């Protein structure tokens, strides 16, 4: 079975060429593509050489998160997304055994996002999409995103959640890399909670959801999520208004609150939804990875390295294979079996 890396990024060569020629690309500057990071300047041939040296057979490539551009004009974002996706498609066509694609979408315009999702899945044969944990502060439990979830489920698209630069920590502190090291992991737990609490999985049980960076704090905070879920239900039973006990209307999902037997935000405790998601192995320690596997199940953990970002797992294939805490079967599942099943190979 091939080793498949589901968490690998790209700064498009067409963006880099435009920056060298004119200093901008669709109004974006070099900062967007993180060109100050050497890894993001690598060519396709250099990428392939790295993959060979690292023992990676295939990368499922997603654009650098700077190209989300959810705060930009929707028309401009749509053009940026299409150009990014077309470059990845060209790479997949040239090297079909080495590359597959996760697209970027103009998520601030859900209709345009669904149109681009349909294009990349049907015409370009992508495996799915990469999205931020929120769209300009709006989480994915909001009703406006229902057409997106319907399309993603129908098309069988993997939805890979990966933070942008505007993590929740920025509002408190922007020093010491905490926006990344803490904010990244916090965002993923918030995404898990919003999607579960908002009933997205209840409505769309066939969704393929992948949480980057091992799901952040999700596996480690799930017991507290369950406790809060139980405590809120007890308050409702004691006569407390659900909007008070449950902390608002959970993305305006009022009909969901009224549909469930005791007016809770989801039909099951949060921990019951852990296996509705996949999690990459980007944990950096064997003990943390072991905890993740034991919490969510070995069949839900996939190989993902964050290549070529500074947070990449160094020599990830050898790292996984060298972990005494994993069995041979578990290593094979993470490196090959689980990623292949998730993307339909």
How would you characterize this protein structure?
The protein has 345 residues and is α/β, with parallel strands linked by helices. It has a single domain, classed as TIM Barrel (Alpha-Beta Barrel), CATH 3.20.20. Helices cover 44% and strands 10% of the residues. The protein is built from 14 helices and 8 strands. It has helices at 13-22, 44-54, 74-94, 110-123, 146-155, 178-181, 183-197, 200-203, 218-237, 242-245, 254-259, 286-296, 316-321, 328-342, and strands at residues 4-10, 58-63, 99-103, 128-131, 158-161, 208-211, 277-280, 301-302. Strands 1-2-3-4-5-6-7-8 form an 8-stranded parallel beta sheet. Strand 7 (277-280), helix 12 and strand 8 (301-302) form a beta-alpha-beta unit. Helix 3 (74-94) packs parallel to helix 4 and helix 4 (110-123) packs parallel to helix 5. It is globular and about 65 Å long. The protein starts with a strand and ends with a helix. Mean pLDDT is 92; it is low at 250-264.
């Amino acid at each position: 079975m091939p080793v498949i890396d589901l968490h690998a990024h790209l700064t498009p060569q067409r963006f880099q060429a435009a920056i060298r020629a004119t200093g901008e690309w669709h109004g974006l500057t070099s900062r967007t593509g993180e060109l100050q990071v050497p890894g993001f300047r690598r060519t396709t041939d250099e990428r392939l050489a790295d993959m060979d040296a690292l023992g990676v057979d295939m990368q499922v490539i997603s654009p650098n998160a700077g190209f989300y551009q959810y705060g930009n004009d929707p028309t401009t974002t749509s053009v940026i997304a299409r150009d990014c996706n077309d470059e990845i498609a060209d790479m997949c066509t040239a090297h079909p055994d080495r590359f597959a694609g996760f697209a970027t979408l103009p998520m601030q315009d859900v209709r345009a996002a669904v149109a681009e999702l349909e294009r990349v899945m049907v015409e370009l044969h992508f495996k799915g999409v990469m999205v931020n944990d929120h769209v300009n502060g709006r989480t994915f439990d909001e009703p406006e995103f229902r057409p997106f979830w319907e399309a993603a489920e129908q098309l069988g698209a993997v939805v890979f959640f990966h933070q942008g630069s505007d993590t929740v920590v920025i509002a408190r502190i922007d020093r010491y890399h905490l926006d990344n090291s803490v904010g990244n992991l916090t965002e993923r737990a918030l995404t898990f909670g919003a999607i579960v609490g908002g009933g997205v999985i209840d409505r769309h049980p066939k969704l393929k959801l992948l949480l980057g960076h091992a799901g952040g704090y999700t596996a480690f905070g799930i017991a507290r999520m369950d406790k809060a879920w139980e405590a809120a239900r007890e308050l409702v039973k004691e006569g407390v208004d659900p909007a008070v006990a449950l902390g608002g209307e959970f993305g305006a999902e009022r009909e969901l609150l009224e549909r469930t037997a005791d007016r809770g935000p989801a039909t099951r405790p949060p921990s019951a939804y852990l296996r509705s998601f996949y999690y990459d192995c980007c944990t950096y320690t064997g003990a943390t990875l072991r905890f993740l596997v034991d919490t969510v199940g070995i069949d839900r953990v996939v190989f993902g390295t964050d290549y070529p970002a500074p947070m990449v797992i160094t020599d990830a294939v050898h790292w996984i294979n060298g972990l005494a805490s994993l069995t041979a079967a578990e290593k094979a599942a993470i490196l090959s079996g689980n990623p292949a099943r998730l993307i339909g190979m």
